[in-house]
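Re: the 282-residue chain
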Amino acid sequence: MKRIFLAASALTLALSVPASASVPPPPPPPPDGLPESHDGYSTEALWYAYLYWVRGETAVRRQAAFDALRLPGWSDDPDAWRTELEGPSYAAISWWIPHGNLFAFEEVCPVSAGYDNPEGCLWRYRSAFFTTQAQDVHAIAYETFDLAVFAERLRQQGVAPDAVGHDFRSDFGLAAEVHARLDAMIQTRDIREDVCPGVRDGIESLAAISLPLSSYGPPAGTPPPPPQAPPSGDRQTLTIPVGFYPDMDVTVTIESTGAGSMNALLSGLIGPVNACIQAAQD
């Protein structure tokens, strides 16, 4: 059986990019009707210290949700499944809040099959992404921002007003509440090929690709690349551990910011998975 092993991080949204320019819009201003400061603390400084923390936590919570789906390589539970091989993985990290996603393919095996040439192993797909928009994330900040309480908290912590600069970030004691609300906006996928044959189809599609290891550019007759995708703030990374070299650690890393060639690779890899998901929803 031909195998390609990959590692990284999503799903139907993996092929989508914002249609607007690559520079994201400015963050929203502080809530209306507040004074310029409270007890010496600038309202604007406290607002952006909190807002930027909330925005940053979208990436943190998405990664946490994705990591929570990881299966260990060993388990003493005979009814459990474990990871035998790590396959292709993908990460799209975006300037756009909360755009971006993570997905990975792994070959998993039933613990009951043992660890020496186990039988019954299947390819598995896992992903994590947000199903919401930037305004929904900003709404969390607007609904929980409390100027007087935030200023008093910093005062008690010994943080002087002039210490709250452009790089200052704080959860102001609201991490648990904000994390719960962000987590409710994240969707995860955990699909094996016995439920969705497209999981294996995507792996086989990638395994069938011939990759010339040449520094001289494409050979004569190579077709032109696909059209460039619309500009986006995504930094895309597709990581492929190559199982063809069992005695060497070989990894192919492909990076892009919305190139048509990257989307063509992703289409072959996760297109069959998305087709299964769509069919199940219809």
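The helical segments are 43-68, 134-144, 147-157, 175-183, 198-207, 260-281.
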